[in-house]
Amino acid sequence: MTAPQGRHSRVAIIGAGFAGLGVAIRLRQWGITDFVVFERASDIGGTWRDNTYPGAGCDVPSQLYSYSFARNPHWTHSFSTQPQIQRYVHDVVDRHGVRDSVVLECEVTGARWNDDTARWEIQTSDGAYTADIMVSAAGPLSAPKLPDIKGIGTFRGPIFHSARWDHEFELAGKRVAVVGTGASAIQIVPSIAGEVARLDLYQRSAPWVLPRMGRRYTWLERLYYRRVPGAQRLARIGVYWVRESFVLWQSKYPPLADFFSFGARMKMWWVIRDRELRRKVTPGYRLGCKRMLISNVYYPALARDNVEVVVDGIAEIREQSIVADDGTEREVDAVVLATGFRITDSPTYDLISGRDGRTLSEVFGAEGMSGYKGTTVANFPNLFLMIGPNSALSYTSAVFTIESQINYVIDAVRTMAAGGLRTVEVREDAQTSYNRELQQKFDGTVWNTGECTSWFVDENGHNATLWPDFSFRFHRMLKTFDVEAYRTTRSE
């Protein structure tokens, strides 16, 4: 088999969000310039380009939500908003000179490994490409998850996902239904509740909502971070270790979660006086079992006279209304789907075919979603996944995971060059042994014993999403590329 006629790069990167751009920047820093970044959209930024809904912001402290090699002294708040993060991404790309390596409006439609040429053959909307190494950085929050609700296609008004916000729709004075109570919903609801005529919030299960301990930075603090060497690094270290302490009660000693949930209950009881509403929004599982949310304005918004929390589920969507499971029909002018993303069944997995012709989706479907150190998968030579299986963190910044994986990828590229290696593919026995030990770490954690149903754990009780330990151990594990765990071939 011969590779299709097209453009060739040493490294091809799918996605121009934090992960893909981070890989590109570090490649350039190490003197590797033969790479290309494919981005299907017309702009960079990934999640922070797409999520422009009212109130969009980060629930991870600003000091942690930046690359360690490009700290940002210009944050105005301890928790940053979407526009600020998007500006930061553009600034970093320009400062590090990788913008010209990004091919915008170029969607990857397929990628298969050619064992004869030892290259990835990549089909895109911009034509054919080949690459020696491919990095999938499409991200777990790139494909909206749409609910399968009877009649959803018959609704006559605007209906859109939170990550595809319709900014042309005028909310003022309208009747709006919000479906879902996850991280996006608790930011959207308070932002629009005072503007709409009525808001119906459809809740499947009540989330734990902790106080948002945020504040604006003073001009003196920002000046301090800009002018004093090491000041922001120290602030980042302090915030990091506070967040790292969350592992003690999520993974090591779950009963400690009850202590923290007591404070959340007190906050709820103080704000919500209506007993029926309080009953609806009180979680029935242990704190930490699902993703923890933070807000100081969510509960006050739910207590408004024009807001109703519906817990009966949705039976059907009609042309101008939503019918709940109890038969109650509520007329609405627009529907907002705050229903999350396709994380464990990312459509990107359908596009990537490995050495035996099977796609990542087929391998994960037959064998369960698993990989090696969250970054590589047996049967897929020279492929690296960013935020792959069991690499997500529920308590701290995803950027920390991304940088840990970047270290691994860069060291792998350097190891291949230094050793004259043509291919590296993780051995199946190494991957199996790694996952056996990894899954044992979930025993007794709040994610497995918290009595909830979450996207962290599949129907077989397998947690394919989270890293179950301290993040510094994940970082240490990926500091160097362990080539001995890989099957390798040499360049001819």
How does this structure look, described?
Helix content is 30%, strand content 18%. By secondary structure, the chain is an alpha/beta fold. The chain folds into two domains: 7-143 and 343-490, FAD/NAD(P)-binding domain; 152-207 and 291-337, FAD/NAD(P)-binding domain (3-Layer(bba) Sandwich). Strands 1, 2, 3, 4, 5, 6, 17 and 18 form an eight-stranded mixed β-sheet that branches. The chain is globular and about 75 Å long. Mean pLDDT is 93; it is low at 1-5.
Low-confidence segments, ≥5 residues, pLDDT <50? 1-5
In which range does the helix fraction lie?
25-40%
Helices and strands: which structural class?
alpha/beta
Shape annotation: globular
Q: What fold name stands as the CATH topology of the largest domain? A: FAD/NAD(P)-binding domain
Give average pLDDT, whole number: 93
Strand content: 15-25%
The number of domains is 2
What Rg, in angstroms, do the CA atoms define? 23 Å
Q: For this structure, what is the CATH class of the largest domain?
A: Alpha Beta
CATH H-level superfamily title of the largest domain: FAD/NAD(P)-binding domain
CATH architecture of the largest domain: 3-Layer(bba) Sandwich
List the total number of helices.
Answer: 15
